[in-house]
Amino acid sequence: MYSISVQIILFVCLLFVIFTWIGSVKASRLLYNQSLERMHRKASKLLFWSWFPAIPAAAIIGAIVWMQQSMDPVFWQDRVFIQAPLVVLPILTIWFVSVPKLIKLRSLTKQSLAEPGAAIEPTIYHRAASPGLIIPFQMTALGALTALYFSLVPPVPFRWLEISIPLAAFVLATVGLWWRHQIRFKQVSKMEIYAIPTFWKRALTMVGVMAVVAGSVYYLFTLAMNNSQLPAEIDMASGTHDYGGQAVTANRSPHNHGIEGMNGSSAKMVSVADLTGPREGTPDRHFTLTAQKKTVTLSSGKTVDAWTYNGQIPGPELRMKKGELIEVTLINEDIEHGVTAHWHGLDVPNAEDGVAGATQNAVMAGEIYTYRFRAEQVGTFWYHSHQDSQEAVSMGLFGALIVEPKVETLQQVKDITVMTHRWKGNTFAIGASDQLERMTIAPGTPVRMRLINTDDWVQQKYTLVGTHFEVAAIDGTELNKPGVLTNTHLVVATGGRNDITFIMPERPVYLNVGGNRSSGILMSPDGKGEIPELPQTVAFDPLQYGDPTATPFDANSRFDRNFTLILDNKLGFYNRNLDFLYTLNGEVFPNTPMLMVKEGDLVKTTIVNRGNVDHPMHLHGHHVLVLSRNGKPSTGSPWWSDTLAVLPGETYEVAFVANNPGLWMDHCHNLVHAAAGMTMHLMYEGVMTPFSVGSGTINHPE
After folding, report:
1. Which residues neighbour 259 within 8 Å (Cβ) at sequence distance 6 or greater?
2. What's this model's pTM, rounded to 2 decimal places?
3. How large is the average pLDDT for residues 195-215?
4. Which distant-in-sequence residues (6+ apart) come within 8 Å of 77 by Cβ?
5. Can you tell me whether residue 597 is helix, strand or coil?
6. Is 390 within 8 Å of 353 (Cβ atoms)?
7. How far is residue 30 from each of residues 44, 176, 198, measured CA to CA in Å?
8. Which pLDDT does position 195 carry in this prediction?
9. Each residue of 498-556: pLDDT tens digit?
């Protein structure tokens, strides 16, 4: 409903501009009618246009009132205090100032029409030129235009100083029009017989006004475009430093980042390059990933020109045990843009995180890079390149990463990785299979399906038919005593993971993905059977699922830092391109906030999505505990997430312990959004990075 309200306000604001603009033109040109009959008719039509814009205005106000009654102030305060007055007050001036004058004018013309051959008297022209008749219509059009501007460029966060500039432009334009019409009114008042200016004179005047307006718009347009160009080299620690409510007395030079402690004591700087995994010791497992271009064949025989790890799609599944020392050698054979390997959801030391420009330089063609870390978490994760990640993931540079318990379970489990991806040409595949996949599983076998959504800007829907099941884990973290589910589908955010478990029955079980019955996985005791019909299902909600259990902190804990992130859309320039931007606290990188913490801090973040699209927010190096959604507390199993889908109109409160020092990306995992600037960083005080991004560097993480 929130998303619909936002779209209603935006669309109707546009209609409101059109309707009020028509009325303003009619009001201004009323003076130019050369016959009583025409003057009377035009005055009557203008009376209609004085009431007609009330329809879109009512729709706008209705949507705003619904927000005000249903949602927190962050969603509606700009709309209530700015847009609503810009819509309502000018219309009231039409009704209480212009309409009485119009009624009187129409009455005079009607009386004159009763006299055969009567001409337009100077009094009628005098009334038609009245600023009190014309300005309310033009002020309403200007108010509509300003309200539309605030819909396209919302003032987030809400600051009166930033709002004052467009409001001042509205006031100045209104005053300027009043001055112009006052001069015309005086000229008409002095004439015994009003001579209507010739068409060409009026046209030249209009062309002159439009030229001034167009020149001003062009200047502002060019200035904004040029100012949006990204520098050739940007320190990834750029941005406005947000200390989460902490008072800061430190000397914050561009590369100091508040490294003097909160009490002013000096701290030694640490480079992210030094925050490595174990450098010594023989690894328990060693993997080699070779990035290369290759044409691969899907199960249907269709070929895909892909960027691959080890010549396959997805890349090889990396399996390991908890606590093992892992070494991964990354070789870039021929990817000219460069590659990295980021371990999505696995909280590794900062230097091993694999983000070009933040924790390392991109590995260019012909180069080799080695990662070393201990796998400290059990669960389902995945890896992908974080260099030109939007294109790299789309082209195939990704694979599954599974961390198993140190001690194997006694019962043999059928473990199935379901990695879904849509390739260029709109070809959907599970792994390398773009057809229905059949599996033979003996009845009574425990089954674990690891659902991994790699698609960009797709909340993938998974429906299991033929048996009840449990959601065992979210984003690599096991749930406590999960409940039994039937007729329930799962919606997994871009980059997110869900593990589901069940005991194989004697009948077929079907996993459907995205509602497409031509693909999916059909499991049966003999590998045969028909695809069952999809039942009506409800969406799985983890907020109250499972049983609560003890956590290191909860919503009642005392937090050292409190941050607020407002996700929104606005029309603007990013690197000289005009587009609808996806913003964090009203900004795009590199002007997005840098969240500053100290090691050991307990950090709370409130995430608000004011926009009209979903944003799966992914914080590197940490898992956050979901405390509440839309004011409702999380009362089920502790819900830990590293890729949290925040839908339009939603507010999440999440928290984490700052226990992994470094410079960590925090971005929307709709990678097209991140590439357009919806990215920011979590920075530990006392940490610096020697790496940078920009057109003048080799590093382009998004």
Report:
1. 250, 266, 267, 269, 685, 686
2. 0.92
3. 79
4. 158
5. strand
6. no
7. 11, 19, 15
8. 67
9. 999 999 999 999 999 998 888 899 999 999 999 999 999 999 999 999 999 999 999 99
Exposed, middle or buried by CB within 10 Å (0-12, 13-18, 19+), for 394?
Answer: buried
Distances (CA, A) of 545 to 311, 480, 639, 684: 40, 9, 9, 34
Summarised one tens digit per residue, pLDDT across range 506-519 is 999 999 999 888 88
CA-to-CA distance for 584 and 632, rounded, in angstroms?
Answer: 24
What is the distance between the alpha carbons of residues 415 and 326, in angstroms, rounded to a whole number?
22
Contact 702, 679 (CB under 8 A): yes
Asked if 101 and 109 touch (Cβ cutoff 8 Å), the reply is no
Nearest to 451 by CA among 435, 472, 433, 481: 472
Residue 319 has a CB neighbour count (10 Å cut-off) of 15
Give me the residue label for tokens 């009020």: 20
Q: Count of CB atoms within 10 A of residue 321's CB?
A: 16
Q: How many CB atoms lie within 10 A of CB 584?
A: 26
Q: What angle do CA 247, 249, 252 make, to 5 degrees?
A: 110
d(CA 621, CA 662): 9
DSSP string for 191-255 = -SS--PPPHHHHHHHHHHHHHHHHHHHHHHHHHHHHHTPPPSSEETT-SEEE-TT----S---TT
Reading the block at residue 654, the tokens are 């999440």
Give dist(CA 7, CA 1) in Å, integer: 10
Which residue, 676, 525, 559, 527, is CA-closest to 615? Answer: 676
Give dist(CA 22, CA 453) in Å, integer.
49
Q: Strand locations in 517-636, DSSP E?
A: 520-524, 538-539, 561-574, 577-584, 593-597, 602-609, 615-619, 624-629, 632-633
